[in-house]
Amino acid sequence: MKDLILTIVKPLVDHPENVHIDIEEGSNGITYKLSVHPDDMGKVIGKQGKVAKSIRTVVYAAAGSSQQKKIFLEIVE
C-alpha cells in the first residue's frame, strides 16, 4: 500500500525526495501518514480537497476487502 501511495503522490509534487509515509497500526485499523514538503501541500490536497479525496479513493479501493483491518490515509504537515 505504501508503494501505491508513493507512486501516486511523487509525480504530483515538486520535491519528491521529501515525500514520506509513516505507518501506524492501531486496534481499529492501519493509518498511513503522508507528509510532503510545505510548498507541495496545496498540490497534494488540491482545490477543495479534490486531489486528496481522489488519492484516498484509489487507496481504499486497492485495499478492498482483502485487508482484515480498515485503511486510513492522513495528510500531515
TrEMBL record:
Main location as per UniProt: cytoplasm
Signal peptide (residue range): none
Subcellular location: Cytoplasm
Statement: the UniProt record of this protein carries the keyword NAD: no
Top-level taxon of origin: Bacteria
Claim: Zinc is one of the keywords in the record: no
UniProt keywords, alphabetically: Cell shape, Cell wall biogenesis/degradation, Chaperone, Cytoplasm, RNA-binding
Family listed: Belongs to the KhpA RNA-binding protein family.
Subunit (UniProt): Forms a complex with KhpB.
Cited function: A probable RNA chaperone. Forms a complex with KhpB which binds to cellular RNA and controls its expression. Plays a role in peptidoglycan (PG) homeostasis and cell length regulation.
The protein's name in its UniProt record: RNA-binding protein KhpA
Organism the protein comes from: Rossellomorea oryzaecorticis
